[in-house]
Write a structure and sequence with these properties.
The protein has 170 residues and is α+β, with helices and mostly antiparallel strands. It contains 5 helices and 7 strands.
């Protein structure tokens, strides 16, 4: 059986695909390594990384001159990919990119998670059709995006309040 990752490799350049262990962020500093690996799919690097640890984690950094502040779940070793992908996608045009990043899970993965960057959105149509016909081969986050973005935004606001309160206490 052919799984989603194999189909993605058929349509997306290998340098624009990144696979990693979804349980690799024991501490906030681990996010710096993850983010550098992750952003390589769009041929960029992060600079000026600062992270704040806690129930929620705050990740601050730059790509080129664009500042990023991303709130992710703390007290877990799982990558909180949804707010990261969302924030990057909001800023890709600002760093000179015309595409979009998607996270995915393939049916042959264990605890891995995958990401890919595309500029040819016809690829999504092809992958979407494959997923409709073979739903057990994997899933791509971002297909049906309006609901997910609304959920991410509300989570981001709640998390931001928690982080700001913690910063004031220190």
């Amino acid at each position: 059986m052919k799984y989603l990752y194999e189909y993605i490799k058929d349509f997306v350049c290998e340098k624009n695909i990144y696979l990693t262990d979804s349980e690799r962020v024991d501490e906030v500093k681990d996010y710096e390594r993850f983010l550098n690996d992750f952003i390589a799919i769009v041929d960029e690097e992060i600079t000026d990384f600062i992270g704040f640890e806690g129930e929620t984690r705050l990740l601050k950094f730059k790509i080129k001159s664009i500042k990023f502040s991303i709130f992710v779940k703390g007290n877990t070793d799982y990558i909180d990919e949804k707010p990261i992908v969302s924030e990057f996608n909001k800023n890709l045009k600002n760093i000179g990119k015309n595409g979009k990043i998607y996270s995915f899970w393939s049916g042959d993965f264990g605890q891995e998670i995958g990401f890919f960057y595309i500029e040819d959105f016809n690829v999504l149509d092809k992958l979407s059709l494959l997923l409709k016909e073979n739903y057990d081969i994997g899933q791509i986050d971002g297909l049906g995006e309006v609901e997910k973005n609304q959920e991410s935004e509300s989570l981001k606001i709640d998390v931001k309040k928690t982080v700001n309160e913690r910063i004031k206490e220190n």
